[in-house]
Amino acid sequence: MLVNVNGRQKTNQFCVIGQTDDTSVQAYVYWPTEQKLILWVPHLYDNEALVTSDRYLDLKRDVVDGNDVHGSTYLVTRSFVNAALKACQEHGEKFTIHKSN
Amino acid sequence: MGTPPKTAKPQTRIVLASPSTNAGAMERLFLIEAYTPAYVGTYDASQNLIAMRLMRQTIENRLKSPGQYMARGATTEIEIIELGNQFAGFGTYPTLDPGMTLRLRDILTIANNPKHPMHAAFAQFVNDAITAATESTTPSVAKYPNVTAWRTKNSGSPGPSFHMLITLSGNTFYSTIPVPPMLHRDAKHSSRQTH
Known about the structure:
heterodimer; A: alpha+beta; two-stranded parallel sheet; B: alpha+beta; three-stranded antiparallel beta sheet
């Protein structure tokens, strides 16, 4: 659903890296084709979980240099993004999805 | 005479306040920022109203010194919400990002559909947002009256001037570290000055 709704290219690359702690599981979905980093949290209606994620980060717009996002609930630091992408590169699952519509 | 036909109890439709009101903006913000009952393993019904009250308290505390939170000149809750890239999808409020619009629509659709298996949980979720946005006693009911920010759990800090308070139902709340008063370092009057 994500690619068909928000994708602009026919071929779309993805990398997914999971995170877990004592109480929860979540994952970041890196979509280099659209320069997005999307938080996925287990959701009962999973076909919409990525499209409606409240942390749907545009890597050209929502990333700040330095270590201060000045109180923002959603902006992230470049070091946070770099760490997520490095973890994805080293341990994530990579795959391709073709837009079907 | 037969038995009279059963009449269904009319359901009260849950409606948010107008988007142009402070309450309406906060209701929408809380519904989008909080994890809904569909987030299995993250949503906690017993903590949701507390978390939404902390969101309300965050907005009210920021309104006391808006310039500190990228909303210089803000005099209303709506302005605190829409200024300074502080809340995802609200930068052009009352127009929301498409994903946020869909998320909000889904929440209200389920909350108002008695046939949906999660109707009761979503109705409570929406009513919690309305309560948190409209009650006038928030300062006395917020668990941490000095809260000034929140972040999705495990997504980093809002900045070096913030101190972590608590994580509730998927969001971690923070307070602003008070700036210490400037110390006088005038060498002429320093007690360590040697003669």
